[in-house]
Structure formats: C-alpha cells, structure tokens
Design goal:
The complex is a heterodimer.
Chain A (H helix, E strand, L loop, with lengths): L4 E10 L2 E11 L4 E5 L6 H8 L7 E6 L2 E3 L4 H7 L1 E4 L11 H5 L14 H14 L15 H14 L4 E5 L7 H16 L3 E5 L3 H7 L2 E6 L2 E7 L5 H9 L17 E10 L3 E9 L2 E6 L6 H9 L6 E6 L2 E2 L5 H6 L2 E4 L3 H5 L6 H5 L8 E2 L2 E2 L1 H14 L16 H13 L5 E5 L7 H16 L3 E6 L2 H7 L2 E6 L2 E7 L5 H8 L9
Parallel strand pairs in A: 3-8, 3-9, 6-7, 7-8, 13-20, 13-21, 16-19, 19-20
Antiparallel strand pairs in A: 1-2, 1-4, 4-5, 9-10, 11-12, 11-14, 14-15, 17-18, 21-22
Chain B lengths: L1 H8 L1 H10 L1 H20 L6 H26 L7 H17 L5 H24 L5 H20 L4 E2 L5 H8 L1 E2 L2 E2 H19 L1 H11 L1 H6 L4 H27 L1 E2 L7 H11 L11 H20 L6 H22 L2
Helix pairs in contact in B: 2-3, 3-14, 4-9, 4-12, 4-13, 4-14, 5-6, 5-7, 5-12, 6-7, 6-12, 8-12, 9-10, 10-12, 13-14, 13-15, 14-15
Classes of the chains: A alpha/beta, B mainly alpha.
C-alpha cells in the first residue's frame, strides 16, 4: 500500500540540545502505529513537527507524495493531520457542537451562526464514533472519556487523514479505554492512520499494528507489533536489559503505624478500615470513581471524616489538619502533580522545601543556604535530571517533575507515605526508580501505601492489596498469591468480602 | 550541569542578580538614566524643593503599592485601597472635629477599622469564595461612599491639633520629608520580610499554586487573610498620613490611587496571576511613574497628559517584560 506520510532524516535542536537526530517515520492509511520512548525521548517534538507547530532543522516531510515545506499548523490541519493532546483543549462552558466546530463555525448571512447546520454536522461526526449525545449541552456536563471523544470528533470533522493521540488513556478507566479502542478500530477501517503515543505497553499490543521507538532523540527501532514482545520494546526504549520489572518484595512486617477505623464521608466513601505497618507496602486498587483519592485525602487531613477514627502510632489524629499530620510524619503525595503537587513556575529548591519551611528557617527567617542544601540533597536522592537548581520545575520532563514531587515529600522526613498514582504518565526508567525508592523506604521502616490504576504495578509493588468499589472497601489480598483477574473481580463489584 | 557552573562564574551578572533580581536592576537603571536626562533638560529637577515635593507626592501611592504587591503576589487584587485610604482619612479627621476625641484615639479607631475592612474582604474571599475583583470593587464603592457620608461630601479642616501629628506629616528628619522616610523604611522592612520571612514566603507559594500550597500543609486562608489585612491597614495608614500632611479630612483623597498602585507593582515585576513580584520592584515602579509625572510638570506639559503617559509607561513596561521573559 502507498505511504500516506513519510518523514525522512528529521533533526531538531533547541538551544544547543539535540532533541531529534536523523529520525525516520512513516505510516500507511488504516495503520495504527505506536510511538514509544521514555519522557524526553523526542516523541512530542516529532509530533509537533508533524503538525507544523515546530519546524525541523533538517529533513523532509512527504504527505500523499507531495513534499511539504515550511509546514504550519493551519496547513497541517487542512491537509488532514490532527492531534489530540493529552490535556484536553476544549471549552467546558460551550456546547458540544460549538466545540467541534471551534474556529470554523458554519455561517448564515451577515455573519450569524448557522446552528442548525452545525448541530447536524456535529451529530453526523459523533455517529462515526458511535456516540449518541445531545450536542446542544455544554461540554463540561460530559465525562472525561466522552469529552475526549468530542475532541477526536473535532479532529475528524476537519477531514483528518492522520490522527495523533498523545497518551489518550492516561485519564480513562479500563472500560472507557476499551470504548476508545473500539472507536480507533472503526476509524482504522475508514482508512485513517493513527499515531498512538502511550506508556502502557499492554495497550500498544492490544491495538497497534506497528511501532517506532525513539531514545534520546534517535530512532532506535521499528517494526510490526506481531513480531516482538513487550520486553523487546522496553529494551529498545531504555537501552538496557531490565532484569526485573519490580524490586524484591518485603520480607517481614513491622509494627502497626497507621490505623483507620470505619471512616465515612457522605457521597464519597463509607466505613473504610485498614492498617498500614512499617516495612510494608500496601497497594490500594479501584476503578476511577471508587473513592480512593477521597478516602486517602481525608486520612491526610484535607477533609475531615463525618465519622470514624484515624490513629497514628496509637494516637488519635482524626481531627488533625494537614500541617499537624505532616509534622507528625503522615504525608499524602497527590496524583495531580501539576494542579496539586508542584509550583511549576518556581524553581526546584523552592519546590522541595515547600512542605516544610520550618526546617530551612531560623528565627522565622528562611535561610537561603539551608534551602539550597536541602533542595540539592533531595533532588539528588531522587536522581532527578536537571540543568540548574534555579530552573523552574515546569521546564523538567514529566518523570523528573514527579521525582521533584517525591523529593519534596522525602524532605519532610515522613514515617507514613500515602502516594496517589505515583507513576502515572511517566516513563519506564523513572517508574522503576520510583518503585525502587519506595521499596527502600519500606525496608528502612517506613509505612507505604499507594493508589494505582495499573494492575501490574499493584501486583508487582505491593505486599498487601486493598480494593475499593463505589466508596467501599471490598477486598484484601496477599499480593504474592493474587492475580489480575481476582483483583478485577473485586474492583468491578462482582466480589465483596466485607459485605455485612 | 556544566552550563550552570559556567554561569555562576560570570560574577558580574550573578552578583547583580542576587542583589536586585533582573527586574529591579534594570528598572533602577532606567530611573537613573531618566533622572540624569531630566536634570539636563529641566534645571529645576535637582533642586531640594522639587525632589522633596516629588517624594511626598509619591509616598502615599508608594505605601499603597507595597500592600498591593502582597495582594498581587498571593494571586488577588485590591481595588479598594484608594477608598479605604479616604475612609480612614475622614474617619480620623471627623472623630476629632465633631466628637472632639483625642487625636491618637481617632487614629487608633481609624486603624482598627482599616484592619476590620481588610479582615472582612478576606472573609468574603476565603469563606464565601467571592472573587477578589468583585469583593474589592464593591468595597471600593462602599469605602468611598462612607467617606462622603461622614463628611457630607466636602473637605473638613482639622486645624492645628497636635505638633507631633503635624510633624509626622509635614516635618523632616535628616532633611528628608517624613512621609518619604516612612515609605523608605516600610519598603526596606517589607522587602526583607517578603524575601526572607517564613510566613511571607508562603504568599509566593499560595500565589504560584493555591492547590499545591494546600496539599503542602500551608494554611492558604490564613495567608490570604494576613495579606488582605496588611493591604487595607497600609491603605488606612496612608490615609492618616495624608491627614497629618494636609490637616484636611478629604473624601476624594486617593481617587484612582488603586490603579496607580497596581501600575507601580506591575511595572516593578508583579504578576496579575500571582506568585511573582517584589516590594522593591513596586517601589521603583512608583518612583518611575512619579518621575515621569514630575518631568511632564517641569517640562511644562499640561497635567491632563499625565494619566495618558502613565498608561503608556505601564504598557511598555509589561511588553518589554514579556519579550524578555518570553525569549528566555
């Protein structure tokens, strides 16, 4: 079959850093191609060149046999190259139909909007995605997965021939992901070519025909997915053998540190009880909406429980606020590093000391030297890659931002760590490092509890697994003997050990 | 890593950067060049009289700009400072004149009420979750309204009541007019606190990312309450200083001052989205605006041009800053 798009010898550098070097990539109509690589490997740069946002220093782009020079975003869109970004870029207050036709609203006479035409066309394109929703309602009324479909619909309505999906499943549940995949297969049949960027290898093997792997801006491999197994791709991505995907499990369990007894909060979760012991990693699994984050944030003191008790070292801390809990060694590391975790415009040091200004102060004055010492100590402990401690955190890659977030919390010297999706959206290498750090902390006597939506991570990292479903704790399993299927049975509500 | 070490070796720029931060240094440079030019073009510029009047003229705006900087850094805005200034001004004056209260008691009452205004603004913002813009826009109208009600709309002279009070507003210490000296001391203290105090550093965290501050165990509401109280208190203080200077309770005092304070703070590097800004920068911003106004007067340009020129200075400062930051 003819190639739809071919990019040859693409190179791009930013201020002396080579982001891409002599990269080749091509795609055929109806092909779903995975673009793999760790954070910072150059995936985004390549996609930005493909969509005309960035200009390459060298190389050529050939689309439908025609060489495109000085491609700009508008031309790329008109040619049919569309991207759906990881963070949705829609207007929640505006109707679904207007979102789909943003910037190209059909007009009547004298510049008035032709709503009838617009709604008809919007319904037509949503039908291609098997989506039956009221296009007059504000987009914000829809769930995240439906909003994402609307974004895809928007791309399709511009007559897309190539669709680029950047981490499309990072905020979807498994069943929502499945709906997305069904739609992608539908589009594939229509002959649309799809670049699929994901950190989840399982998805790549489920949906993609082919793959391209980038590492440090260099093309390190491509081929048919059917010809390789996940380990091959991981090896290409990290450039080394991963002897094992997860660190060794803990061997002994120490004394009890955190006890949660029957805490409830209206409309969020009810009667949650569990214990976390030192030298133990407890994994908390549940589908999105199961109330995991809400329960853990309540334990941390962001909210107060309506009823129930929380004890730390046997002492009742139910009424504690976050400050008191941090000072007593109980911390919660958010899943949302951009909104709730980091001060993106502030530098690394300022971020690391944010949760404990006390330890860098003398007589209520912040000492610059202490800030510098603590900052550099903990970003280095986390093996964070940076150019300068004065650079704003937003200039780091996702994995390194996550390390700064962890550094910030290790700097407060916690005893109990509750981590919410500690490895979401970060690359394999950084993920492994974070898992190793957590296991080391646990072995050194810390109590660790983490929330994850990834079954392999839950099974691989935990010693003990708790499962929530619709605001209730439904199961507790030993991670050594549990299987993915068993955990899913609980999480989907088909099994419940604690029902009255 | 290598690049960073290299940068540290370029002593000159890093020393300057440490002293002022890029924004303050370049602003100071602009002020010096501008003053030098002005001293050639208008011989009256360097006279003690002119310098003193200019300093007194900008000292009230400067005090407001210090408070405004705190509010802008925390991610808010306070449009009520000019009105609070007028309210405190006429309340202190009228309680002396009509109730015959002791002057210091009047000042105390006025300050306490300024604190209360700041506290109530902060309550609307933190508890009822109104936007700072709407809250302080309302307070701007309420404060000005109260000032008119108390004075029935016309200025009231308080006469010669206390030598100390007159001295604070009209006297000089070390040859510097007292209002100017007060402003300079205030800037030194507040700038130091904003850079070094544990409590004041939290303002930057809250302004940079409120949610993240909350999740880091920072008491966001407490920080905001402190900031709005400080801002209103400084506005009230400026009003009393104005009374001490002119001896007249004036309901129209501080009209439009909130915009000059915001302009000064923003020229000095404060960001309207929070997380950025320094007291020293705001001070320099106010000085630059004061100099430009003074230049127009000395060069015989009509006063009606002043506002227009200040607007242009503000626009250019923000655009230059965007270009410099954007190309980083």
């Amino acid at each position: 079959m003819d190639k739809l798009l071919e990019m040859k010898g693409i190179s791009k550098s930013f201020y002396g850093t080579q982001a891409l070097k002599d990269v080749n990539i091509k795609i055929e109509p109806g092909e779903i191609q995975a673009v793999c690589g760790e954070n910072g490997a150059g995936k985004s740069t390549l996609m930005n060149i493909m969509t005309g946002i960035l200009q390459p220093n060298e190389g050529e782009i050939i689309f439908e046999g025609e060489k495109l020079t000085n491609l700009d975003p508008r031309t790329a869109q008109e040619k049919g190259i569309s991207i759906v970004h990881q963070e949705l870029s829609l207007c929640p207050e505006v109707s679904v139909a207007e979102n789909i036709f943003m910037g190209r609203v059909p007009e009547k006479k004298r510049g008035m909007v032709n709503f009838k035409e617009m709604r008809k066309e919007a319904e037509k394109v949503l039908k291609r995605l098997n989506l039956d929703i009221d296009v007059k309602q504000p987009l914000g009324k829809l769930g995240i997965s439906e909003q994402q479909m609307v974004e895809i619909a928007k791309a399709l309505s511009i007559n897309a021939k190539i669709l680029i999906l950047d981490e499309p499943t990072s905020s979807l549940t498994e069943s929502e992901s499945q709906i997305l995949f069904d739609n992608l297969l539908r589009l594939k049949k229509e002959g649309i070519a799809i670049f699929f960027i994901s950190h989840r290898l399982k998805e790549i093997f489920q949906i993609c025909d082919s793959f391209t792997v980038l590492r440090d801006g260099v093309h390190v491999g491509d081929g048919r997915v059917a010809d390789v197994d996940p380990d091959d791709i991981v090896r290409m991505m990290v450039g080394r053998e991963l002897d094992q995907a997860y660190p060794d499990k803990g061997t002994e369990v120490g004394q009890n540190i955190l006890t949660v007894e029957n805490i409830s909060r209206k409309d969020e979760f009810e009667n949650i009880s569990f214990e976390v012991n030192e030298k133990e990693i407890v994994g908390l699994f549940g589908l999105i909406g199961a109330g995991r984050s809400e329960a853990m944030q309540t334990v941390f003191g962001i909210n107060q429980p309506d009823s129930g008790k929380i004890k730390l070292f046997g002492k009742d801390i139910t009424a504690n606020n976050t400050r008191e809990n941090i000072d007593q060694g109980l911390i919660y590391i958010t899943e949302d590093r951009k909104e709730q975790g980091l001060f993106l415009d502030m530098d690394l040091n300022a971020n690391v000391v944010a949760a404990d200004l006390e330890q860098v102060s003398e007589n209520s004055l912040v000492k610059k030297k202490k800030v510098k010492d603590i900052g550099s100590k903990f970003v280095d402990i986390m093996n964070t890659k940076y150019a300068s401690l004065d650079q704003p955190v937003k200039s780091l890659s996702g994995g390194n931002q996550q390390k700064v977030l962890l550094a910030k919390w290790l700097a407060v010297d916690p005893r109990v760590l509750i981590l919410d999706e500690p490895t979401r959206g970060i690359d394999v290498g950084a993920k492994f490092e974070i898992h190793t750090t957590l296991r080391e902390l646990s072995n050194n006597g810390h109590a660790v509890m983490f929330i994850s939506s990834e079954l392999p991570e839950i099974l691989g990292l935990s010693d003990r697994i708790l499962i929530m479903h619709q605001g209730k704790l439904v199961g507790e399993l030993d991670a050594d003997t549990a299987t993915e299927e068993e955990v899913m049975m609980y999480a989907s509500g088909r099994k419940n050990d604690f029902e009255n | 890593m290598e690049g960073y070490k290299g940068m540290e070796n370029t002593q000159n720029s890093s020393v300057l950067k440490k002293l002022f931060g890029l924004r303050e240094a370049s602003l100071a440079l602009i002020i010096i060049v501008f003053a030098a030019l002005l001293s050639f073009m208008a011989p009256g510029f360097l006279s003690t009289y002119n310098i003193n009047t200019t300093l007194i003229g900008l000292s009230m705006d400067g005090i407001l700009a210090v408070g405004m900087t705190l509010v802008l850094v925390v991610g808010g805005i306070d449009l009520s400072v000019g009105s609070v200034m007028a309210f405190a001004n006429v309340l202190a004056g009228m309680t002396m004149v009509t109730l015959g209260l002791n002057i210091w008691l009047s000042v105390l009452i006025s300050m306490v009420l300024s604190v209360l205004i700041g506290f109530s603004i902060s309550q609307f913002i933190t508890k009822i979750k109104l936007s700072p813009f709407i809250t302080t826009l309302s307070m701007m109208s309420i404060g000005r309204g109260l000032a008119y009600i108390i004075t029935k709309g016309s200025p009231v002279s308080i006469g010669q009541i206390s030598e100390t009070f007159d001295f604070i507003g009209g006297g000089k210490t070390f040859g510097i007019p007292n209002p100017g000296l007060i402003l300079i001391l205030l800037v030194i203290v507040m700038d130091f606190l904003m850079r070094n105090s544990k409590t004041f550093r939290k303002i930057y965290y809250v302004g940079s990312n409120e949610e993240a501050a909350k999740f880091s165990g920072i008491n966001v509401n407490k920080t905001k309450i402190m900031v709005y109280i400080l801002c209103s208190s400084l506005a009230g203080f400026a009003g009393i200083l104005n009374l001490a200077r002119f001896g007249v309770a004036t309901p129209t005092v501080g009209t439009g001052a909130e915009l000059r304070a915001i302009a000064g703070a923003v020229i000095g590097g404060a960001s309207l989205t929070g997380g950025e800004g320094t007291v020293l920068g705001a001070f320099l911003g106010i000085i630059l605006v004061g100099l430009v106004n003074n230049a127009l007067v000395l060069l015989g340009v009509s006063v009606y041009w002043q506002q227009l020129v200040v607007g242009l200075v503000l626009l250019s400062a923000v655009i230059i800053d965007m270009k410099v930051h954007g190309s980083k």
